[in-house]
Design brief:
InterPro entries: Carboh/pur_kinase_PfkB_CS, PfkB_dom, RfaE_dom_I, Ribokinase-like. Pfam families: PfkB (PF00294). Residues 1-30 are annotated as: Disordered. The protein is an alpha/beta fold and 343 residues long. The protein has one domain: Ribokinase (UDP-N-acetylmuramoyl-L-alanine:D-glutamate ligase, 3-Layer(aba) Sandwich), CATH 3.40.1190. Helices cover 35% and strands 26% of the residues. It has eleven helices and 13 strands. The strands form two sheets. A nine-stranded mixed β-sheet has the order 5-4-1-8-9-10-11-12-13, with helices on both faces. Helix 1 (18-29) packs across helix 10 (309-323), helix 3 (82-91) packs across helix 9 and helix 9 (291-304) packs antiparallel against helix 10. The longest helix is centred in the C-terminal third of the chain and has 15 residues, at 238-252. The chain is globular, with a radius of gyration of 20 Å.
């Protein structure tokens, strides 16, 4: 494990049962003030994109092909990828700084506009040859009919400029959050992790792909089931899962792994060998897109506010249960997470 841990995450003890731990965490969470979260500073780095939604009615099938004809009546743009993570951080009242690369085009300008409206401090590198990533979704009667992606990898010069700016931003943030969507924005992720840990900053990673060697030395990594399975293979039991995760963590010098498990909630594996399972708390699942963004954003905010890891996980689980009841990439604000009576 890394020797540079001036700000380690506090992991749960091995003795209490998960249910009692969760109750303790919830009691502590109720005392988190707006002021405390307002002092938390999170630097988000990664792939940003524009989530564009076209809403319309379907009344007929095309005579050209057996596909529905959508009469588009409304368009909505939302921040996606790392930009949505930053928006989630800001929605909780924390200070969100976003480092990313966007193009000199209409979608890039729209992202800048939406970030400003969301209260996110932007640190953007502009690549004139980069078409800003767009995920276009066509919906009718709340059902997604089609998604069209537009994307390209940023230029090496823009990425190097971003790495230089990363060095300058480290000192003014408490936690580093790396949001990887495999669009090329985190080409230098290994160097970023090493620099952040050397500076005593916890590093949270939302991973992508099967090459996790690039995340070596991270403090916490937050895969979903499919992402973890791609790296460690299919597990046969909970004990088998624990053994595979422990071996993975040890080999990559990662302190903790939070596995998000959809309807099964989430499970935290720590360097101390502790395991905490938080059951899903969603009342109604409407749309799971962006839920992982909300989870890691909530974790980052709570850890930046110096809350224990168990409390951070409990709150992240609660936030996930709220956000899946909303359409598309959404956020959870302070009042939703803690209740309007909490100050």
């Amino acid at each position: 494990m890394s020797n540079s841990k001036p700000h380690p995450m506090r992991a749960p003890d091995a003795t209490p049962e998960p249910s009692s731990r969760a109750a303790t965490s919830l009691a502590g969470a109720a005392r988190v003030s707006r002021e405390r979260l307002g002092e938390a500073r999170v630097l988000i780095v990664g792939d940003v994109m524009l989530d564009r939604y076209w809403f319309g009615d379907v009344n007929r099938i095309s005579p050209e092909a057996p596909v529905p004809v959508v009469h588009v009546q409304r368009q909505e743009d939302r921040l996606g990828g790392a930009a949505n993570v930053a928006r989630n951080v800001a929605a909780l009242g924390a200070r969100a700084g976003l480092l990313c690369v966007v193009g000199h085009d209409e979608p890039g300008e729209r992202i800048v506009e939406l970030l400003k409206d969301s209260g996110v401090a932007t640190h953007l590198e502009r690549d004139p040859d980069l078409p800003t990533t767009i995920k276009l979704r066509v919906l009718s009667r709340q059902q997604q009919l089609l998604r069209v992606d537009f994307e390209k990898t940023p230029a090496h010069e823009a990425l190097l400029a971003g790495l230089v700016r990363f060095d300058a931003l480290l000192a003014s943030h408490d936690v580093v959050l790396l949001s990887d969507y495999a669009k090329g924005g985190l080409t230098h992720v290994t160097q970023m992790i090493a620099k952040a840990r050397a500076a005593g900053k916890p590093v949270l990673v939302d991973p992508k792909g099967d090459d996790w060697e690039r995340y070596r030395g991270a403090t916490l990594i937050t895969p979903n089931r499919a992402e973890l399975r791609e790296v460690v293979g299919q597990w046969k039991s909970e004990e088998d899962l624990r053994e595979r995760v422990d071996a993975l963590r040890a080999s990559l010098d990662i302190e903790a792994l939070l596995l998000t498990r959809s309807e099964e909630g989430m499970t935290l594996f720590t360097a101390e060998g502790s395991v905490l399972t938080a059951p899903a708390v969603a009342r109604e699942v409407f749309d799971v897109s962006g839920a992982g963004d909300t989870v890691i954003a909530t974790l980052a905010v709570m850890l930046a506010a110096k809350l224990p890891l168990v409390t951070a996980v409990t709150l992240a689980n609660r936030a996930a249960g709220i956000v899946v009841g909303k359409l598309g990439t959404a956020t959870v604000d302070y009042d939703e997470l803690f209740g309007a009576d909490v100050r």
